[in-house]
Amino acid sequence: MIALIMGAGISLVFTMATMPIFIRLLTKKQYGQVVRDDGPTSHAIKSGTPTMGGVIIVLAVILSYFLTHGILTLMGRATSGVTASGLLALLLFAGMGLVGFLDDFIKIAKKRSLGLRAWEKIVLQAAVGIGFAVLALNFPNQNGLTPASTAISFVRDTNIDLAFAGPLAGLILFVLWSNLIVTGTTNGVNLTDGLDGLAAGASIMVFGAYTLIGIWQNNQACGLPGSGNVCYTVRDPMDLALLGAILCGALIGFLWWNAKPAKIFMGDTGSLAIGGAVAAFAILSRTELLLVVLAGLFVMIALSVIIQVGFFKLSGGKRVFKMAPLQHHFELSGWAEENVVVRFWILGGLFVAAGMGIFYSEWVVGL
């Protein structure tokens, strides 16, 4: 437990201390947000606010992870040290953050609201996602457990195995399944990141849930005395819990500067990195389908865009919402930005609570 507190503390302090320096640097270079013309008119005042705050979030998480492990080793309290699961989660997190950074930098350099071309972003995200998926099926531990599994999971692996037609078909199907999850989470977080503090606050809750899940899976791991029939076959759950705590610390530090009126935005650097981390947790903790509930706020917001675009095309120009994503519909309905953010945080918290309830209930029922 000391590792979780240490990791979260390091990332929190690093983010809190370095973010104002980064804000001054971006302001000096005039690296500000370009607000879309088709967005809510109330957002025009946000034009020029420094963006790419996700750079500090990514640096804080990576630094805190390795520094925490290093300190624990020096203290003689290290158990497993750096793990394959932790490194793979960081790979997806940082890889998606790099794609977002390229997108943000192009927007800033060209002073326009669109960065990478759609096909460029798809190719880069696919490259990171495929690399993660292939590597995740390797690196078995002493018990033969790999970080990921070809079995589709809910709160643990189910009997639905993508390798039903052989290892090669299983690898291909898992790559497709994994990238579907990654695409969904990165887009969900990216679409949620439209109001001051909304995406950061909601993400803290999700990562907090995965921290608790990692602790529980570690304490109920198969092979431990008294583990019984409802144990968890997850590789490196405690290291994933550490990473979840570190992400919470970094995002709390960022939220201090991102709360309305935001002094800095996370940009695509932050939203894509966070989305990648959420996907990594779902895949590596074997809770892929549970993610739909835990990250229900992101799912709801992404669905609002799908519904809006689909209905617009099918109806010949009619709309379901005043504007999509969903948070902007409520802004245009007269809600103050702070009201939208807090009420969506409440919804996000309810989704997380429901997901944790399902996770725990499955264990209780299985006893």
From TrEMBL:
Location in or out of the cell: Cell membrane; Membrane
CDD domains from the UniProt entry: GT_MraY
EC number(s) stated in the UniProt entry for this protein: 2.7.8.13
Predominant location: membrane
Top-rank taxon, per record: Bacteria
InterPro entries: Glycosyl_transferase_4, PNAcMuramoyl-5peptid_Trfase, PNAcMuramoyl-5peptid_Trfase_CS
Reactions catalysed according to its record: UDP-N-acetyl-alpha-D-muramoyl-L-alanyl-gamma-D-glutamyl-meso-2,6-diaminopimeloyl-D-alanyl-D-alanine + di-trans,octa-cis-undecaprenyl phosphate = di-trans,octa-cis-undecaprenyl diphospho-N-acetyl-alpha-D-muramoyl-L-alanyl-D-glutamyl-meso-2,6-diaminopimeloyl-D-alanyl-D-alanine + UMP
Pfam families: Glycos_transf_4 (PF00953), MraY_sig1 (PF10555)
Molecular function terms from GO: transferase activity
UniProt topology in membrane: Multi-pass membrane protein
Annotated TM spans: 6-26, 55-76, 82-102, 122-140, 160-182, 194-217, 237-257, 264-284, 290-312, 340-360
Keyword field: Cell cycle, Cell division, Cell membrane, Cell shape, Cell wall biogenesis/degradation, Magnesium, Membrane, Metal-binding, Peptidoglycan synthesis, Transferase, Transmembrane, Transmembrane helix
Family: Belongs to the glycosyltransferase 4 family. MraY subfamily.
Job of this protein: Catalyzes the initial step of the lipid cycle reactions in the biosynthesis of the cell wall peptidoglycan: transfers peptidoglycan precursor phospho-MurNAc-pentapeptide from UDP-MurNAc-pentapeptide onto the lipid carrier undecaprenyl phosphate, yielding undecaprenyl-pyrophosphoryl-MurNAc-pentapeptide, known as lipid I.
The protein, known as: Phospho-N-acetylmuramoyl-pentapeptide-transferase
Organism of provenance: Paeniglutamicibacter kerguelensis
Name of the gene encoding the protein in the UniProt record: mraY
